[in-house]
Amino acid sequence: MSLISSDTTFVLGGARSGKSRFAEQLVVSGGLERHYVATGRAWDEEMRSRIDTHKADRGDLWHTHEEPLDLVGCLRAIDGEGRAILVDCLTLWVTNLMMEERDMVAEFASLAAYVPAARARLVIVSNEVGLGIVPENRMAREFRDHAGRLHQMIAAEAADVYFIAAGLPLKMKG
What we know:
Layout: E1 8-13, H1 19-30, E2 33-38, H2 45-58, E3 62-66, H3 71-78, E4 83-88, H4 90-99, H5 104-114, E5 121-127, H6 138-157, E6 160-165, E7 168-173
Parallel strand pairs: 1-5, 1-6, 2-3, 2-4, 4-5
Antiparallel strand pairs: 6-7
Helix pairs in contact: 4-6, 5-6
């Protein structure tokens, strides 16, 4: 575990738990220039509609960056003093990396190393997927395992960690 030198908040929760809304409020309350890094891909029309709705809901006060794979490269490109960067979300990023058969260990290590070095305020969102039953198929089990390992790495680097359930934040660290 590293010595915490970052101003990073990690926000975990289940689907529709209120985690993204909570994360957005953290960024807005800071008064910094707002950047939103979206990792999701529009695989179908329903997902495309969700993405469009999220963009419209955020409004024009956010700079949106869509980056499904090179998350650290995107963060480096927009990092800077006076900025807040919201990453939403790590589990979609994990899905994209798996679909592209990327080196998960290297990708995760790169992100974990970047977090404490960031100059911007980072707020990172992810779905907690390890609280349910053991998935019935290998790919789903690998996804759950990758997400769990990544969450541990990011939580170790973050100054603050929240778990959101039913729209209510539980501060776990910081």
